[in-house]
Amino acid sequence: MESDLHTIHGMLGLMPKGVWSDCKRKKNNQSNRSRSFLLGLRPWHIWKKGEGTKTVVDRTYFYMAGAMFRPEGCELWLSLVNFYKTYFPDFKYNSIIVNRECEYTIHKDARNRSNKTLSFSLGDYTGGRLILYDEDKKEVDRIDTNYQPYIFDGMNTWHSVEEFEGERYSIVAYLL
């Protein structure tokens, strides 16, 4: 497994600048280097406008994320699909988010359609563990995901990423 993860890590360094965009839910003190991109399906939201709000009416339509149309994105997608098929054959997903140097604030993955999230990180860094919280947002555990895939309930569990030093990529697979 570790050699496959090192191969995937090497591929991340080859991704062109044009596929990376700003991380959402990032902490305020993050550098401008924090970026992410999506591989796989992305929901096409049909919105209903209301009094100063927007409500998702339907998200049964999907389109392929932009990075999938780049040769590097397709190659990375295929490598990740093979990785998941080999080591996690029963894990169901249709989207993968790739993050570079993102420290996410506490959140739940409310848009997921499954309570299973598979997360791992790659790079030469210290800190950066996945932090899990209870319903009162009190810390319960810190999980080291560096070259160590971890499955958790990202849809119903509050979670974040602790501060880190160094180069850190995280790859999160989930079902929309």
Comma- or semicolon-separated keywords:
176 residues, alpha+beta, Jelly Rolls, seven-stranded antiparallel sheet, three-stranded antiparallel sheet, 2 helices, 12 strands, globular
Any overview of this molecule?
This protein is of the alpha+beta class. The protein is 16% helix and 38% strand. The chain has one domain (2-174): Sandwich (Jelly Rolls). The protein has helices at residues 2-12, 71-87, and strands at 21-22, 35-49, 54-64, 95-100, 117-122, 125-127, 130-133, 139-143, 150-152, 159-161, 164-166, 169-174. Strand 2 (35-49) and strand 3 (54-64) form a beta hairpin. Helix 1 (2-12) packs antiparallel against helix 2 (71-87). The model has no long low-confidence stretch (mean pLDDT 82).
β-strand percent reads 35-45%
Order of helices and strands: HEEEHEEEEEEEEE
Relevant CATH superfamily: Alpha-ketoglutarate-dependent dioxygenase AlkB-like
- What is Rg? 16 Å
The count of strands amounts to 12
**Global geometry:** globular
Give the low-confidence spans.
none
In CATH's first tier, which class applies? Mainly Beta
Largest sheet: 7 strands, antiparallel
Mean pLDDT: 82
What would you call the structural class?
alpha+beta
**Number of alpha- plus pi-helical segments:** 2
Topology, please?
Layout: H1 2-12, E1 21-22, E2 35-49, E3 54-64, H2 71-87, E4 95-100, E5 117-122, E6 125-127, E7 130-133, E8 139-143, E9 150-152, E10 159-161, E11 164-166, E12 169-174
